[in-house]
Amino acid sequence: MSSVSELRLSRVAHPSAIKSLRHAFMAFLRANDVSEDCAADIATAVGEALANAAEHAYGENLSGLVEVYARVEPEGLVVEVLDRGVFVERPRREGRGFGLRIMKAVARTVSIDHDGGTRVRMVFDARYVRSQPLEAS
Amino acid sequence: MSDASMLAVVKMDGELDISRRAEIRAALAIDGQPAGVLVDFAEVTYADSSAISELLRFRADLGRRGLAVALLIKSPQFKRLLEYAGVSDAFAVFDERADALTYLGSARR
Q: What ipTM was reported for this prediction?
């Protein structure tokens, strides 16, 4: 199967859009010969970041976007999930807040910044991905 | 469901993500006092933390009512999700319906 080293997706950050984003991301992983179990795990982690954006980023604003950017780099598969909403620190609620724990269980590193929205950056082990990393630009 | 000799069965399929949170919550709303609850997710192909949150809420409710619950899950992704979230031990999870029913039968004795 031919590999695709880079992916960019953008959709309205609404729960109803998450499934199609996740499926498109899975297709990208399959195109890069990622095994089904690894692809499912990576898509799970990315799905959690997408769900957070859909649930929290924009409040009542139903037109805000969530973007996914994935790129095969020497350090591994780098995935960024971005929104341009307003981050609000929320109190911990019983039985909630598993998304970050799941992301950290799957990704080698997870970093989050809230500068002008929320950017979740995850790096997954290179061994998951058989395509060649992009040349540095 | 009000007959204490009967099990309640909740069955869902497909992908249980954030877009189906309300549907999951409604499906897990068990009335009455059944002998136990079988949550049949055998045909669920994907789940995210929304499903976990609703299952934990459900488990707490059943615990208050003294009801046992068994989860039938076949999707490897769903099973790993429970591990990654650190809640595997919170549920009795089974691959086979017969095993789940045996568990519920023993739990009510």
A: 0.89
